[in-house]
Design goal:
Layout (H helix, E strand, L loop, with lengths): L2 E7 L6 H12 L5 E9 L13 E6 L6 H5 L4 H8 L6 E4 L4 H6 L8 E6 L6 H5 L5 H8 L4 E4 L2 H10 L6 E4 L6 H8 L13 E6 L8 H13 L4 E6 L5 H10 L6 E5 L5 H5 L3 E4 L8 H9 L3 E4 L4 H5 L7 E3 L3 H13 L1 H10 L9 H12 L3
Parallel strand pairs: 1-2, 1-4, 2-3, 4-5, 5-6, 6-7, 8-9, 8-11, 9-10, 11-12, 12-13
Helix pairs in contact: 9-10, 9-14, 14-15
Length: 372
């Protein structure tokens, strides 16, 4: 008999966790599992990529402001009865926050509860925003038999921040569809033409503070004033987009930075770029960086969760800098002015692809699901 499994997430928006979840669900063995995906809000670009055999449910048709605060007025048990209703063998909150609180209200003792954390949590306030209090947050997490982290760095940070939370704390790396990524990267680019006389930089991510794009634009300004011939392409959407345009105009970067918006297929642009830049203040286990490594595009990144696991603790497979504007500037300048270093990473990055095997990462999740 198939195991009946529910995965829950707030939305299926354009973020990395949402994309990884859809990839994971599409690759789980349909002969072993009957899978339902519950999204609190019926919104997000990734919904259309779900396989037909995955059941899809939602509660609210549209996303609304202040939803976290409104949901806190109701108890987890009541929210579970209202939103989930059906019985499952395993229920999984795939993103830290409101779905973790909701699923903790499950009344069934034989139902396995699992939750995923996709970011590095270094202070309790980050987690408790979705809860009435720190006490409720701790109580909620302690109801889950297993908490899964997408990197060892994220697990250690959580343990240090919440030593009151027990249970099985494990690491499972994100699932990416390597074959799909490589195949899509070969599609033709029509709307832009990369200048072969410049070093073309690229970054893919939501336009939010966490991604550090304002400091990256400032670094671009400094490097261009030092007569380094570069162009930056930013792929994504988000609340800070207008701020980015203002910064581009402020530093006269119009001829050196292109904001491309959201792209269904970012892979063809990443594959044809010279360097992928991750300027993030924090990450969990960056989907965009792992995709760049799969495509053979060298990476320069700030030191945040998961980067040493992907690129080596001594920058063996990509250049990792300290997490500051000055360090990222120096790292980029180094790789831009030392052609042999860039060529070195172009060779090393190809060795790293095997880390992201779809079969391996899916198999490890199935091993977790199959436990008695």
């Amino acid at each position: 008999m198939k195991k009946k499994i529910l995965f829950a997430i707030p939305t299926l928006g354009g973020g990395g966790a949402e994309k990884v979840l859809v990839t994971l669900l599409n690759n789980l063995d349909e002969n072993k599992y009957e899978i339902t995906l519950f999204s609190m809000f019926d919104s997000g670009i990734n919904k259309k990529y779900l396989n037909n055999d995955i059941k899809y449910r939602y509660y609210f048709k549209k996303l609304f402001k202040g939803n976290i605060h409104i949901l806190k007025l109701l108890s987890p048990k009541l929210l579970y009865r209202l939103m989930i209703k059906e019985e499952y063998d395993i229920i999984i909150s795939y993103l830290e926050g409101p779905t973790t609180r909701i699923l903790s209200g499950s009344p069934k003792h034989k139902t396995r509860l699992i939750n995923w954390i996709h970011t590095e949590i270094n202070n309790q306030k980050t987690v408790t925003q979705s809860y009435r209090s720190l006490k409720e947050a701790v109580k909620t997490y302690n109801k889950f038999e297993t908490t899964v982290f997408v990197s060892n760095t994220a697990r250690i940070a959580f343990e240090n921040t919440f030593n009151e939370i027990k249970g099985n704390l494990i690491v499972k790396y994100n699932t990416v569809d390597t074959t799909h990524i490589i195949n899509k990267s070969k599609e033709k680019i029509n709307e832009i033409e990369f200048d072969s006389n410049k070093i073309n930089l690229i970054s893919v991510g939501r336009f939010i503070k966490q991604k550090g794009y304002i400091r990256l634009l400032k670094i671009m300004h400094t490097l261009i004033n030092e007569n380094i011939n570069i162009h930056l392409y930013l792929i994504g959407k988000g609340e800070l987009e207008n701020k980015y345009y203002e910064t581009i105009q402020k530093f006269n970067l119009d001829d050196h930075v292109t904001i491309m918006g959201f792209k269904d297929n970012p892979y063809k642009y990443v594959r044809n770029s010279d360097i992928f830049v991750c300027s993030s203040y924090e990450e969990g286990y960056s989907t965009a960086v792992s995709e760049s490594l799969i495509l053979g595009t060298p990476v320069v990144t700030t030191l945040c969760s998961g980067m040493e696991e992907m690129m080596g603790s001594n920058s063996e497979y990509g250049l990792i800098t300290e997490n500051s504007e000055e360090a990222l500037y120096k790292g980029l300048k180094r790789i831009l002015t030392e052609p042999k270093l860039l060529e070195h990473y172009k060779l090393k990055v190809k060795e790293r692809r095997e880390l992201f095997s779809t079969e391996k990462t899916v198999g490890e999740v199935e091993e977790l699901l199959d436990r008695k």
